[in-house]
Amino acid sequence: MAVLAINQVQAQGKKTEKATFGMGCFWCTEAIFQRLKGVVSVKSGYEGGTLSNPTYEEVCTGATGHAEVLEITYNPLVISYDELLEVFWKSHDPTTLNRQGADSGTQYRSVIFYHSAEQKASAEKYKAELNKTNAFGKKVVTAIEAAKPFYVAENYHQNYFNKNGSEPYCRLVIQPKIEKLEKIFKAKLKN
Which of 49, 51, 120, 132 stands 20 to 30 A from 64 (CA)? Predict the structure, then answer.
């Protein structure tokens, strides 16, 4: 009986879950979640549109309905979905409709694609609390939608900051986001 219980605990420890967030350009946000303890992998991609297997060029037109998103695989025994939501809310401006910084269009919308009823409830509760407390000084416009087919972005979009960190865009736009993460979420970062 004890062996069975140990095997069940070990199996639960290996279990991963997915979270999918759109919060502007995936180049800018992928590196944030990659640094969190408990995050197993982060894939940049597209979700929420009508076209199967869209390309970056197609998504950039804004005509496909897809958002640039991150599909995050994480271990819920190390980092909870609520903790991922906290990083999500604090790492972008959820009050701007179809815009993050200089990026404009529906492909840059703030969106949570939930994978379970629990994720939906957590996201809706968190959003309601942010709006109730006027946390951002404006209404949060983040969409909360059921997960749809996720399409992995082209290889050159994957691990972008880690491969191109010395490029001007990375230093000027992404590096400040990493520095903010390191200040606010230091205890949640991988060593």
Answer: 120
Full-model pTM: 0.90
Using alpha carbons, list the distances in angstroms from residue 76 to 14, 42, 83, 118. Answer: 10, 15, 10, 13
pLDDT at 25: 93
Query: What are the domain boundaries of the chain?
Result: 17-185
Whether 25 sits among the annotated catalytic residues: the reply is: yes
Architecture, CATH, for domain 17-185: 2-Layer Sandwich (3.30)
Q: Is 77 helix (H, G, I), strand (E, B) or coil?
A: coil
CA-closest candidate to residue 64, choices 85, 75, 50: 50
Which amino acid would we find at residue 50?
Answer: T
CA–CA separation, 155 vs 97, rounded Å?
28
Given the residues 25, 28, 60, 170, select the one marked as catalytic: 25
Q: 66: closest CA among 141, 145, 155? A: 145
